Amino acid sequence: MNQIPMTLRGAEKLREELEELKTIKRPRIIASIAEAREHGDLKENAEYHAAREEQGFCEGRIQEIEAKLSNAQVIDVTKMNANGRVIFGSTVTVLNLETDEESTYRIVGDDEADFKQNLISVNSPMARGLIGKEVDDVTVIKTPGGDVEYEILKVEYI
User: Fold this and answer.
1) How far is the C-alpha of 54 from the C-alpha of 60, rounded, in Å?
2) Closest CA to 77 of 67, 69, 68, 86
3) What is the dihedral of CA 152, 81, 66, 17, to 10 degrees?
4) By the 8 A CB rule, do 155 and 90 touch?
5) Quick one: which of 38, 65, 114, 151 is 20 to 30 A from 140 by CA?
6) CA–CA separation, 12 vs 154, rounded Å?
7) 147 has which bridge partners?
């Protein structure tokens, strides 16, 4: 499997979720299954079936996270020298030249992307248009509403 680019923060969040699933959620589900078994006939026991289904989801998520972490290429942007260029993990402030609206985005891996928190995927059209650019560069981003010009105001590696 190919390596998955991930920021240091993204990898840490996945590790925290994995720890919670293994130490808190998994034991709780096992206890729920044991309790439901005590109620008798398993064929008609909705609590038992619900707990088993939840266990399946939990185990699936654990496997998914473990696979992602084992294939992760964790990139610590604070230790890289990009000479002011926009790279994976950098935080970029841009100015929409049509609307004069300023926005700040951090370029992250696919699993970390959350547009509401201004975390954009490295594979998004916006990030692809920004990668490799420097402060004062103007780039054109293709959007569903047409091409939009952005000027790069600031690039940070935090």
Assistant:
1) 10
2) 86
3) -60
4) yes
5) 114
6) 26
7) 142
Separation CA 135–CA 83 (nearest Å): 11
Place of tokens 């990668």: 131
Q: What is the rounded CA–CA span in Å between residue 131 and residue 87?
A: 5
pLDDT of residue 80: 82
Q: Which of 8, 14, 16, 139 is nearest to 78 (CA)?
A: 8
Which CATH number fits the domain 4-74, given the four candidates 3.30.1490.20, 2.60.120.430, 3.30.70.250, 1.10.287.180? 1.10.287.180
Q: What number is the average pLDDT over the span 91-114?
A: 93
pLDDT of 27 reads: 95
pTM over 0.90: no
Residue 37, number of CB atoms within 10 A of its CB: 13
- For the packed helices 46-70 and 26-37, what is the interaxial angle rounded to 10 degrees? 160
User: Which tokens go with 4?
Assistant: 């998955």
